[in-house]
Amino acid sequence: MNGSKFQYKALNAAGASVSGTAAGESRLEVYRQLTSQGLTPINIRPMVSMVKRGGRAGVRTKDVAHFAQQLSVLIGARIPLADGLKSIADHESNPRFKEVIQSISVRVEAGDQLASAMDQHAEVFGDVFLETMRAAEKSGNMTKVLEYLSEMLERSEETRLEIKSALMYPIVVISVLSLAVLFLVGFVVPRFGRMFESRGVDLPMLTKVLLVAGESLSGFWWAYLIGIVAGGMGLHRYAKSAEGRLAIDRLLHKIPVVRELLVGAAVSRFSRVFGLCLSSGIGLIDAIEMAGRASGRSMLQRDAEKMIDQVKAGGRVSKVLEACHYLPKFARRMIAAGEESAELPKMCSVVARQYDRETSVMAKNLATVIEPVMVVLIAGVVAMIALAVFMPMWDMVKLVG
Question: Which fold would CATH assign to domain 61-140?
Answer without folding.
Answer: Receptor-associated Protein (1.20.81)
